[in-house]
Amino acid sequence: MDKDNKVIESDLAVLWRRRNEETTNGEGFCPSAALPLSFCNFCGNCRRVVPLHEPFDKSTSSRSFSSIFDNSKYGILQLNNGLARTPQMGWNSWNFFACNINETVIKETADALVSTGLADLGYAYVNIDDCWSSLERDSKGQLVPDPKTFPSGIKALADYVHAKGLKLGIYSDAGIFTCQVRPGSIYHERDDAELFASWGVDYLKYDNCYNLASNQKNGYSSSYPPMRNALNATGRTIFYSLCEWGVDDPALWAGKVGNSWRTTDDINDSWASMTTIADLNDKWAAYAGPGGWNDPDMLEVGNGGMTLEEYSAHFSIWALMKAPLLVGCDVRNITAETFEIIGNKEVIDINQDSLGIQGRKVHVSGKDGCRQVWAGPLSGHRLVVALWNRCSKAATITVGWEVLGLESSMSVSIRDLWKHEDLSGDAVASFGSLVASHDCGMYIFTPVSASRSAV
Ligand code: GLA
């Protein structure tokens, strides 16, 4: 039996073991236990698990392929509310507007997502971050939208956004207050989830400020499951985005709690922040998959603090890492250069690829490892390969097939996703390209023998 099949088999074994544990530990009875891919989730709900990753074609890959692109941790813990089959795409108010938000900004942003064509490219969620609510709950203990900035209320805004074919996201916090000291949702999970559902909210970002220390023990934050249960209980399908900043290594436990989990502290609009966060998120690659994604924070593309090369690298690597693609600039005033980056459909397609395996850093060379190769498997027996030059000068970066887990004799056809062209002639054994400082070349590699038996 080949190695790929062993990986799949061991995933299945884990799923079956967990299913059996959960049907016998009193958390819930699984009536569909006889179905081969049925699984009772943490709440005792029985649904189909998401499909396991398809194995890469063994005729094109070497023995080391599965260890290079290990995804064996994925699928062990799955929240299965049917969402996040691919990473979420949309916009969030925080990176550009911070607390300077109001209903007009949100509506105009929804309009702009549609008029620019970004909505058609998949940017569907319009997410309101912190500062939408009043400083206090009302006399009944309910959250209230700030009457000055959101006078029409959130339901009206959700109706507006839905009428455009988009979805509305909102923000709350697993502690006493949000980070900007609005009321948090701890001990109000049921009420707040019901309120969000009644407004027609489709997405909740759940932050970690003013959290109770007693809830953060043993490498696990127990503040997050109550909101998951409350959202489930509303009967509305609501994307649950954990913003726990990676404090308690959420990749290890958040798969059964939410649809994505922040793995790091906040990004800021700088090369140093973006590169640091990319490296931190890389560590958890084996834990991501359809249903639950590592979240290295929202995009800064278009906010002015990085060069176009740096923004293009930021977008390339976020797409390759299967990160949520949440635009963080003012899309009402988007420039052509920014649109060319976040509107690159070929790069978006990498992020949204159905195989759902997080790409990762596979090779470094040069001073401080600044010549980098990042790569990951794609559906159709293809690979995405990024040549990322983090050096201060232009450099030629070369990738050998052994780094990618391909047989060295394999012929590979190559498409350049930023130039939008197929390279002439197939490559064998290695491929190199001159990359400008801080820029990132991004390519799809299609092993020629695999393309003949295309999926
Ligand atoms: C935290 C989060 C950010 C943002 C702010 C809002 O810092 O990590 O993404 O939501 O709070 O206050």
Automatic annotation (TrEMBL):
SUPFAM superfamilies: (Trans)glycosidases, Glycosyl hydrolase domain. It comes from the Eukaryota. One of its GO terms (molecular function) is alpha-galactosidase activity. Its EC number is 3.2.1.22. Residues 368-444 form the Alpha galactosidase C-terminal domain. Keywords: Disulfide bond, Glycosidase, Hydrolase, Signal. Gene3D superfamilies: Aldolase class I, Golgi alpha-mannosidase II. It catalyses: Hydrolysis of terminal, non-reducing alpha-D-galactose residues in alpha-D-galactosides, including galactose oligosaccharides, galactomannans and galactolipids. One of its GO terms (biological process) is carbohydrate metabolic process. It holds the Pfam family Melibiase_2. Belongs to the glycosyl hydrolase 27 family. This is Alpha-galactosidase. It comes from Vitis vinifera. The gene is AGAL3_0.
